């Protein structure tokens, strides 16, 4: 009975786009490129439409979400759009007290520290976020052959915000729970896996043709701890969306030592930060997976010829993958003070240099 919903990507207008072809490791006319955090504060047109509207509220307004998601596609001619939302939107949708504070990031009113606190993490239902279904539907219609990437925060990264109460560099409370109360930790990340899987499903059912699971801060862990304490929950997320047949991308920062395990959790495409050259990453991840990355975002602050030299190095290292299987991106997100014109030029350069 589910067959009709199994593979929207197969039927979608974006199915043969360079981005989706590369994710499936099929031949491409040029290396596709998009940027993590391509929408947002680097764009004057974003700052204009967001004026006076708090971040989390903006995520609940479909017309606004559509406009912001399309802005970088129009401006930079990137090969994919990423849905404008945030990793904490599903938490807000189930009633967790969370706000996004300017210049700080997500702040949690009452951090999760005990088994009792877990009761606040109830399952996420599609009816909790009708605005997501509506915005994705409108976007897919408008984007035509350009794919829309849905996304979510992975259990570890969400747990870090929930346990710490906000952004953290050391993740000390999070690790204290993981090491000191393994049963509580396992229950926490398992609940988060269900919420994350539900958020991804809502986006896929509405028409997203790929998904990216952001485990931005998991590079803080050693491989054995990742394998024991994080991988089961991330695997659960990937398995929950496997039946849709849309490419699943997995990314984190500082994950050089974890790339093999992150691929093993069930990703079709492994995102790589700038610390590991793509030819080395290809060896670590092993055959059968595409790679995404990995120009150091800070390079964009250097002169154009330097950006081009470094971008060429990334394309060259990606040749280790063979003819396809590379999606060009930065090694982490676009920074708010980046010159958007430098990004537009980079897209053009990657397209021209990689044209087959
Ligand atoms: O008012 C604003 O403009 C706030 C800035 C902002 C924006 C534009 C936040 C707060 N979130 C977002 C949107 C967002 N968040 C997107 C869509 C935009 C796009 O990519 O084009 C995405 C994919 C995210 C995902 C996200 N949020 C991640 C994972 C990606 C990554 O960069 O590693 C993380 C860790 C967050 C948390 C978060 N939300 C906002 C900030 C500033 C942060 C990071 C805070 C921290 O350092 O811990």
TrEMBL record:
Belongs to the uroporphyrinogen decarboxylase family. The record marks 86 as: Transition state stabilizer. PROSITE patterns: UROD_1, UROD_2. Pathway: Porphyrin-containing compound metabolism; protoporphyrin-IX biosynthesis; coproporphyrinogen-III from 5-aminolevulinate: step 4/4. It catalyses: uroporphyrinogen III + 4 H(+) = coproporphyrinogen III + 4 CO2. Its EC number is 4.1.1.37. Catalyzes the decarboxylation of four acetate groups of uroporphyrinogen-III to yield coproporphyrinogen-III. Pfam families: URO-D (PF01208). The gene is hemE. It is an enzyme of class 4 (lyase). Substrate binds at residues 37-41, 86, 161, 216, 332. Residues 32-41, 149-165 form the Uroporphyrinogen decarboxylase (URO-D) domain. Homodimer. The keyword Transcription does not apply. It comes from Kitasatospora cystarginea. SUPFAM superfamilies: UROD/MetE-like. It is found in: Cytoplasm. Keywords: Cytoplasm, Decarboxylase, Lyase, Porphyrin biosynthesis. This is Uroporphyrinogen decarboxylase. NCBIfam families: hemE (TIGR01464).
